[in-house]
Structures are given as C-alpha cells and as structure tokens.
C-alpha cells in the first residue's frame, strides 16, 4: 500500500520539496494549495523564476503586480533567467499588447523608483507598458535574496529583426491600449532605432539594456547586493543576418565590482561604444569609478567567450581580481594568428594578480571554433510557454502556406485558357492552310491575303481601319470569370 504524501514525515517532505530534486515552481505552488502542512513547508523555499521579456502572456507584469500586493513573494526568488520574445513586424502573433497599471500600483511603483534613484529615466517606460525589460530593474528592487541572474542572449531593441520606422509605428499603434498611439512619429526612416516621441527620448539604445543603465548607478539595488552568479549572452539580432553583435564591455567592470559576485560568464562583450555615432574604442580602465579605485573583486570563476577586448583590457580586468580560482578565455577565429601571444599574455597577467588562488592548470585559453558554444539556460528553470509557442508558430506557418496556395490558385483561375474554348475541327498539321481571319480562330500567325480584301477597300482608308469599324458593330458574347467578363467569341 502506497503511503499518502501528507502522511510522510516533515524531514522527508522537506527533502522532496528541496532544490536538489528539480521540482518546478508550478509543482511547488500546487503542493502549497493542498493543505496547511505542505504550505508551511514551501512558504520559505527559495524559488527560480523565468522572466519572459515581452512575451504575449505578460507574465513579468503579473509577477510585479503579485509582489506589490504580497512583498514576501519577492523575498523567495533566488534565481532569475531571462528569455527574449521581442515583437516582430512580420508576425502579428508576437505583438504583445500594452499592459495598464492600476492607480494604486502606479503609486507604489513611483515610491520604489524614487527610493532607489531610478524614477526619472525608468518610471516613464514602466508606466507606458510596452517594454517589459524595463521591469527587470524594478524586480531587482523587490528581490533582496537574489543570488543568480542569467540574462541569456539579449535582444536590446523593443522590436526584433529588419524593419523600417513606419513598420515600428504600425506595431506600436496595434499594441497600444491607451492614448499614446497618436504620439508615435517617424523621424528617420533609415534608422530603425529612432521612431519614438519625447516620452521615449533615449531612442538610440540599440545595444544597451535598462539593466545596463542601473549598473552605472552609484547605489546597488537590493537584487544586486547579494548576487553571486551572473551570466550575460551575446546580442541576438537579425540586422546583420543573424551574426553576433557586441554589447558595451564597460559593463563587465560594473558586474565584477558587485559586492558578492563569485561566478561570471560574458559572451560577446565589445569595447566599441555603440551608443555613439563615431563608435570610439575607450579602454576599460575608464569605466572604473573613482570611488571604487583600488577595490578588488570577489570573483572566483570567470569566463569570456567571443569578447572583443585588447591586451590592456584584460590587464585592467586582471588587476581587479585577487581571489580568482578558474579562468576560461577562448581565442576567437579573428585572433587565431595571435593565439600563442594572446593566450600567453592573458594567462600571465591573471596569474600574476592571483598568485595565491589561481593555478596554471585552471587557466584555459583554447582556440575557439567558428561555431562557438551557444549560451545554455539553467536546465531546471520552468518555461511553460515553449511548447505552446512552437505549436502556434507551426500553425501560423501552415496558415500562411494555405493562404499563399489559395492566392496562387485564384490567380491561375483568372488567366485566360485558350484550350477551353478552342475549336475541335482543327486541321491536321500537314493540311494547314492560311487563315483569312474573318472569324476569331485562335491562330497565332497572321497571314493576310490581299485578294480577300477587295470587297472591303474604300478610297482613302486602309484595310485594317475598315475592319476595325466592322468589328465594332458585331455583338459580343461574354462569360463570367470570378466576377469579371471575358470576351469569348464573335456571333454573326
């Protein structure tokens, strides 16, 4: 006889509901609704949350509303993983509608933003209800026990893919549920990043996230104060045919200077300043605040993949470390000819600054292939929308294929088919004789016999002008084809 779950000892139940078993947050939520005993065992359990940016389910917005009404929910979140679902101009199913806050919720958000110094630049975007990535800094204000943050392969633009300013305005007007649609204006159609009005003033943010902005603040948000594990993927973009694009490498310094950071993974950081037109390359040493000059990072495991950094940049990062235990820095294909010198320099400079903790055997600078390792998400993060999204994408593709097929069939039905009304009394190919064209005979060659036009000749007029006048007096029989009328044949 199988024992009931509620009859098991508290120690065994606590082990079943622990993180090591890989039980999802949804299962934990269902268990907490069974009885008071299970609720008490799950109320203090640390949870993992998957933050779906701009997903049509609007799960991030619902989470913020839940935490505003019950702040204890935010204290239980220990891991956040971001997945990106930006709007695509060619797929209307991805056009996530605008969310609207209640007046009480807006007042709470204003107080939180003012408290942590993010009101001026972030609150207008949160209030507008379009870019859910702007909710991440707000969530970090409500999750003081956060230890792991995985940004995934980021998509900074509010709209993904190749598009014009007019297409962007069309998308936002379709998603607008308030009174803001009339404010969207096209400024420069050549630049897909410039289509917002004054409320979206910082419209040149094509490579910068709102999360990057809060890293530049002088204060550390509650969700960043206890952060131990951090992961930043490359910029997922279709602007260059799917190639990787860099994000500003100065934010690497900001992450390494977090109070309790231990593990960091950086993919696709570039020293180029993409927020400027001239794209100047500034050294990473300029990103270190004066107030933090000389501070050592608590980082222990560090990994760089496809990062566009120079030797002096690696030297700046190495000087920040002092307790590093493991370093992985693959050399990308463009720098293969510097494989020995670059790899040796990176290993040397980090070993010199971490003499007591970093062993040579824990330093890896291999040659990176053209197909680098893609960023893999945490395996036990619950992603409930993956299967439904794939199913909806397949249904949308099948619907588009059917519409294209029906359109081709309709076009084919409007094309005149001469074989349908051709005469059945055509002569054999060897018995062919020239046609006098007195009736519509569907022949392709016009062989005119001058002797047949003697009865039609009139002084001062050519034969074809006389024939045109005769044809104009002949009644025509027509047939209907898809609502239009086509000429069938002459009737004497």
Automatic annotation (TrEMBL):
The name this protein goes by in its record: F-box domain-containing protein
Naturally occurring in which organism (per UniProt): Orbilia blumenaviensis
Domain F-box: 6-45
